[in-house]
Write a structure and sequence with these properties.
The protein has 863 residues and is an alpha+beta fold. 38% of the residues lie in helices and 24% in strands. A five-stranded antiparallel β-sheet has the order 10-9-14-16-17, covered by helices on one side. α6 packs across α15 and α9 crosses α11. The longest helix has 30 residues. It is globular, with a radius of gyration of 36 Å. The protein starts with a strand and ends with a helix. The relative contact order is 0.08.
């Protein structure tokens, strides 16, 4: 048994470190957090100065038991959890659970998993930093308070199932995405005309080359046409040439945020994927710690980079640089993300290689010379109207740090741009041969939707969140359904081009695809409704400055300048008042928007949030006839859907026709689109456009269902059918649905299998049913205290007898169907009258069928 037990967070890290430290150390993983706030009563005693109550979760009990056993048999326990606040808190929780004294237990930290770094850390242990622990505890407690108090408010006040949640950082992130979406929707596109002329001149090898020059933007088609007409018969003369040196400098080495952004832009990685690969690279000793907001590089690293740059590219490519953190409160690691050894330009693991190479190149580039450029600007006068054109070119004189990027696919464009931007030698007074001039219509563009990476950048700019919180925040808002990550198809747009060639001005129309987006963040309707509600009643929580100030206070706790429970108290008291006031006074939020009036029924058509998501509703809930509903599909929103689009969701208006003397119609329900045939509902594939479903297609669907529903056997002379529902495969017999467990081969169910399943179900239900009338959807059943009647899904409790006693099961077994119906009618007045009324409506619908049948065809054509 080794003398020393060293505890880290991940098993991969444990293996790497154990190899370095040798036989004196046994290195074990605690697999992340080992304690958390208990869920009952928030896990926080507000009355006792916000005292937290921690428990070891069930899934960590085995890990903790093993660590306790190993700690007892070791001479000394060392803690080597990650070097951020969460890592410090895990070390403290380990002390609490293992019975260690945090003031005496050795705590080591390191920025990289290399032999020198690990050995140096073991030589220089410290104690658990309780300021960092309390900063993490303050964050956890404050976030628990916000979630615990706000989520029930959302459950009560927003028409959705109880799966809503709110969080201090996640709600602000959703607000950013919602505001950007509304900014895009409100954006008014303005068109202008770009003037571009083409000229020829001799290059250095005396060959004719073409180059372009731009003129002043024109604001209207008339202005553009007038400008070109004013250039008819003109001469073009160079009036001025300016040559200026320029340079490009490399970006600083990666922080968590900039790595996430660059991996998104260059590799197309999401934030979570980037962090997952970075974690693996760190644990395997390839890079330094990956959660950091520092751009600092250690002297050892700087020396290693210098030697590598000089060795690979020569002295002239090296330039020493020392980067300074913008954020002086950089709370995580104190070094940027970089390779542990610059001699490793790649790693053998293919799935990690692209991200590693990106880190290696960025680290190399940050200590390389500037790229040197020469920028040339030429002014060209138009003789007829004395207007001016400008030609600009750029020549790369020395590539500097760009040399590293040329090895990467994306950066071939840099050279192409430089070549395309070169101007031929020009002189002042030179007359230029004119080829053509175009005035091309161009459109102003709305701000771009956020990608995961650009959202991280914005959060960082606002001072919201920290390196360890960006990825979990984005994962949470996607998982909760407040935000969707998806592509958007482009739409065709026409634009005008005026051309001047051979002294003639021509006009033509061209088209382009616009608005296509890939992997962008869109707010869902739920996200918009929740954001509006929280903005209205909890403006502090949703305020960017307030959220950033809270982050600043966490930093002060980490530095020992503020007591953690003082900051929590200052936040909690006003927040709790807002919660109580909102529960008392706020109205339910649905995001309702009226779209128009249904021409057929005269009822209002509105878009709103329902219990199962965004929907279109025709009619009011208190109307005599139930409202009709259609689910709003992905890609459309309560805020932007038009009346025509909403009506198209309903497909055929009313009855399309008949099949086997039963009415046929299509609609969208809670679980998606369906065909209704008489009293039967037959599901259509999700996303089906109801405008494309004709009567013939609906009948095909019905026939397919009939074939699927054909009896596959009999039991007690009654047919058995089989199917698949929301809860898996089933057989149906005598009105009973019987689930088919996985141990049966559903595709090849034998009669014996079905007999076995029905026998088991009948025995199970034997004591349940006293009497059943499946065709009427009525049964008399045993309940806990006395028999009850089931009418559909409703329970009807039997009244007491005249002697004030309850009916027995034996007495209930003697009831006739008519007697049972009388009990139902007494409890639910008009229960059977409704059925008659519905039948009358069906009869009138049959007469009107030909008229209604035409409606969907129009809708389909229109679409």
């Amino acid at each position: 048994m080794a003398k020393n037990l060293l505890i880290v967070e991940s098993p991969a890290k444990a293996k790497t470190i154990e190899k370095i430290l040798g036989k004196d150390f046994q290195v074990k993983s605690c697999f992340g957090h080992i304690r958390d706030l208990q869920k009952a009563d928030m896990g926080i005693d507000v009355e006792k100065n916000f005292e937290p109550s921690y428990i070891v979760p069930a899934d960590k009990e085995k890990v903790v038991a093993e660590l306790k056993r190993l700690a007892k048999s070791s001479e000394e326990v060392w803690l080597a959890t990650d070097e951020d606040r969460e890592g410090e808190a895990i070390s403290w929780h380990l002390c609490e659970v293992l019975g260690l004294d945090p003031n005496k237990t050795k705590r080591i930290v390191f920025h990289e998993i290399t032999k020198p770094a690990i050995q140096a850390a073991v030589q220089n242990p410290r104690r658990v930093d309780m300021n960092l622990v309390m900063a993490q505890q303050a964050r956890r407690i404050l976030d628990r308070i916000v979630g615990f108090e706000l989520s029930p408010v959302l459950w009560r006040k927003i028409s959705m199932r109880n799966n809503l949640s709110a969080g201090r950082v996640q709600s602000v992130a959703v607000r950013l995405i919602a505001e950007r979406e509304r900014e895009i929707n409100a954006f008014n596109t303005v068109s202008t005309f770009k003037i571009e002329a083409q000229f020829t001149a001799k290059d250095v090898s005396n060959k004719n080359v073409t180059f372009s020059a731009e003129g002043k933007k024109q604001n209207s088609p008339e202005d553009a046409e007038t400008f070109l007409k004013g250039c008819v018969g003109a001469d073009y003369k160079v009036t001025d040439i300016q040559v200026r040196p320029g340079k490009r400098s490399p970006a600083p080495p990666f922080t968590t945020s900039t790595l996430q952004q660059e991996a998104s832009r260059k590799l197309g990685y999401g934030v979570s994927r980037t962090m997952l690969i970075a974690q693996k690279l760190y644990e395997n000793g390839y890079i330094t710690y990956m959660r950091t907001d520092s751009v600092n590089l250690s002297n050892t690293a700087l020396g290693d980079i210098t030697n590598t740059v000089k060795g690979m590219y020569g002295e002239e490519y090296h330039q020493f640089r020392k980067y300074k953190n913008k954020n002086e409160n950089a709370q995580e690691a104190h070094e940027a993300i970089r390779p542990t050894y610059m001699s490793n330009a790649s790693v053998p693991e293919q799935e990690w290689a692209r991200l590693y190479e990106l880190i290696w190149k960025r680290t190399m580039a940050c200590q390389m010379a500037d790229a040197e450029l020469e920028k040339t600007t030429a002014k060209i006068e138009i003789s007829t109207n004395k207007e001016e054109l400008t030609a600009a070119g750029e020549v790369l004189k020395f590539d500097g740090f760009l040399k590293v990027y040329r090895e990467d696919k994306d950066d071939d464009e840099l050279e192409e741009e430089a070549n395309e931007g070169m101007l031929p030698p020009l002189t002042v007074g030179q007359q230029l041969p004119f080829k053509e001039m175009n005035a091309t219509e161009r459109f102003s563009r709305p701000p771009s939707r956020y990608t995961e990476a650009s959202l991280v950048k914005k959060l960082e700019e606002l001072g919201i969140g920290r390196p360890s919180t960006y990825a979990p925040t984005i994962s949470t808002i996607l998982k909760r359904g407040y935000v969707e990550k998806r592509d958007k198809d482009g739409t065709e747009r026409f634009y005008t081009v005026y051309s001047l060639k051979e002294d003639k001005v021509n006009k033509k129309q061209s088209s382009e695809m616009t608005g296509a987006e890939k992997s962008k963040l869109f707010p869902s309707d739920l996200g918009l409704v929740v954001t509006d509600f929280l903005n209205k009643y909890f403006d502090d929580i949703m305020d960017y400055g307030f959220t950033a100030r809270i982050e600043g206070e966490f930093d002060e706790v980490a530095e020992g300048k503020m007591k953690w429970n003082t900051m929590i108290k200052d936040f909690y008291n006003p927040f709790k008042k807002d919660v109580e006031k909102t529960i008392e006074t706020a109205e339910r939020a649905t995001g309702e928007r009226e779209l128009g009036v249904d021409p057929e029924s005269g009822k209002p058509v509105m878009a709103r949030m329902g219990r199962f998501g965004p929907m279109i509703q025709i009619g009011e809930a208190n109307d005599e006839e139930k409202p009709r509903f259609a689910k709003i599909p992905t890609g459309q929103s309560i805020e932007t859907i038009t009346f025509e689009e909403a009506m198209n969701l309903f497909g055929a208006q009313g009855v399309m026709g008949q099949y086997e003397e039963k009415d046929v119609l299509v609609n969208v329900g809670r679980f998606g689109p369906y065909v209704k045939w008489g009293d039967d509902f037959i599901s259509l594939p999700k996303g089906t456009d109801l405008g494309t479903i004709t009567l013939e297609k609906a009948i095909e669907t019905i026939k397919a269902k009939q074939i699927a529903d054909m009896p596959v056997g009999t039991y007690d002379d009654k047919p058995i059918t089989k199917g698949a529902g929301r809860f898996g495969p089933y057989i149906k017999w005598d009105g009973m649905f019987i689930n088919v467990p996985r141990r049966y081969n559903f595709a090849k169910l034998s009669q014996a299998d079905m007999d076995e399943l029905i026998d088991a179900k009948v025995k199970k239900e034997a004591n349940r049913y006293i009497q059943r009338w499946p065709d009427e959807n009525i049964s008399v059943e045993n309940d806990r205290w006395a028999p009850i009647i089931k009418f559909g899904k409703k329970k009807v409790y039997l009244p007491k007898k005249k002697d004030d006693t309850r009916y027995t099961a034996e007495e209930a077994a003697a009831f006739t169907l008519e007697e049972v119906k009388q009990f139902i009618e007494a409890s639910i007045p008009g229960a059977f009258a409704k059925k008659k009324k519905a039948a009358a409506k069906k009869a009138s619908a049959k007469k009107a069928a030909p008229k209604k049948k035409a409606a969907p065809k129009k809708a389909a054509k229109k679409k």
